[in-house]
## 1
Amino acid sequence: MAVLKAMGVVGGGQMGSGIAQLGAMHGLDVWLLDTDPNALFRATNSISTSINRLISKGHLSKAVGTDALRHLWYTSNLEELRSADIIIEAIVESEDVKKKLFLELDYIAKDSAILASNTSSISITRLASATSRPYQVIGMHFMNPPPIMKLVEIIRGADTSDETFSSAKTLAERFGKTVICSRDFSGFIVNRILMPMINEAFYTLYTGVATKEDIDTGMKLGTNHPMGPLELADFIGLDICLSIMKVLHVGLGDNKYAPCPLLGQYVDAGRLGRKRGIGVYDYG
Ligand code: CAA
Ligand code: NAD
């Protein structure tokens, strides 16, 4: 199994920027790609803020932090990912959009490259079917925020090889993460359990059982969660939560996963959570 030295990350939003940061902090050369130049600008800022925060808390040496910033390149040109040993995508949670990207990545990536998805819920087998190398396609599901959260969920598609699995697991462990493995079913392990809870919190608000503050306080103080479910939904992004619920609903074929209408209405209104400054709560 070859040691991975160069990494491409596609999608420079909250997850992609955090994954790119992890790669650079652990000795890889990293190219972070986004089609939106503003997203790349925001990623540059959030990565240096996060690295400075880790340095100031004593979690990272100044030398490693400075070196990490020197091993990160920002681009909008897919061709620049040509030399990557692994490319991890973290773009929108849409099967069609991700499949189109996998088709392009299969074309530009070197033959030995692993193509990984940070999808929260979508079938890895179906994403792999867009490529000519399904044995080199795998799910690497990081948690938000990637530099802090200790877990990576790994999902093998129907044809993922043992070698691809070992490389992905070794990389996640090199990043200091604990790995859990899920079979390729909608939502995998974490979101299969987490998202119905968040959806239920929206139903609790929608049906007037309690205020948003009391729902969140109930779960924070009542069950020791670091964030209440509505606050967490804002942190994840309401668009992402809705997309995941839709995948669970269709993929698992049970009405208990039907997305709450209130969640859909927030997304329709552009209230996507913290990243837009407004979601269930107003961050303005
Ligand atoms: N970069 C660097 N350091 C960071 C950071 C970042 N992006 N975010 C937080 N930190 C550090 C802080 O510096 C602080 O360090 P110390 O403990 O050394 O002081 C520590 O993390 C805690 O941060 P804060 O004090 O600022 O804030 P907090 O205590 O509220 O913690 C949090 C923030 C870690 C996000 C915490 O609120 C939390 O764990 N929330 C729940 C997160 C969660 O559930 N994530 C999973 C979402 S589901 C998912 O990701 C899957 C999916 O597909 C949707
Ligand atoms: P985000 O909205 O913060 O960022 C997505 C980025 O992808 C945007 O900057 C957008 O410009 C870019 N993008 C969209 N299409 C692109 C394309 N074709 N090529 C290049 N860039 C493109 O989203 P996010 O929260 O970072 O989520 C990204 C992925 O990670 C999703 O699949 C999501 O389900 C998954 N995920 C999210 C979380 C979370 O808490 N938000 C946690 C784990 C996994």
Note: The two ends are 49 Å apart (CA to CA).
## 2
Amino acid sequence: VAMLTGPKPLDGKRVLVTAGGTVERIDPVRYITNDSSGKMGFAIAEAARDRGAKVTLVVGKADVSPPNGVEVVAVRSAAEMRDAVMCRLPDSDIVVKAAAVADYRPARPRAEKIKKSAEALTLELVPNPDILQEIGEWKASREDGARKPFVIGFAAETTDVEKHATDKLRRKKSDLIVANDVTAEGAGFGTDTNVVSVYGPNGLVASLPLLSKKDVAGRILDLAQDGLRASGP
Ligand code: CTP
Ligand code: CA
């Protein structure tokens, strides 16, 4: 009952979450994507909603339906996701980038279906914008005292999790990085559970056991709330 009637920890806050995988067109019937299910980002959006936040969920391709009670912005490519995210930053208190953004896209998407031939086919790929890095740069360029969101990125790794995660945190100027070893049992894409460790500017912040994605979402929001309190008025 207290959950329904009492004040909630994120009352009045705006939370922007990205989830799912991006879709990079090759031609009208083919695309490049990845194994992201959207579940981790959806769990965070749902948990933030239950804590009283006004939630915007920017979602690419996902295997499950987004939660009710949040604003859903459907996108396909990384470029579309970038635009949807960047224009909402000034209104956001917390940004969680759980989406699996394709690192590359076809250099020349075709307007017509590519016909087969006996020849080998080479597809040229060009790098996508790094949205999390652009968020970090946008934040760094804001004047002192201007409203800045607390930014949480993710890192999907298969080796040297700590090293790669802390490198990403620094390169992308994020406040926290949630790292998962996608090869670990019960972790990563498609599952309902996850095993993550969270890194901040001073190193390891939390090393969580195997938990449901819902419980992982709760722990991540606890850390975001601590971060907001530390940087807030
Ligand atoms: N990310 C992003 N834009 C991209 C690529 C990644 O915003 N073009 C974000 C993801 O949403 C995630 C974080 O950056 O929050 C880390 O993504 P990850 O794929 O683990 O790292 P990369 O920097 O792309 O490096 P690599 O894939 O080589 O490990
Ligand atoms: Ca990547």
Note: The helical segments are 2-5, 39-50, 78-86, 131-141, 161-172, 213-231.
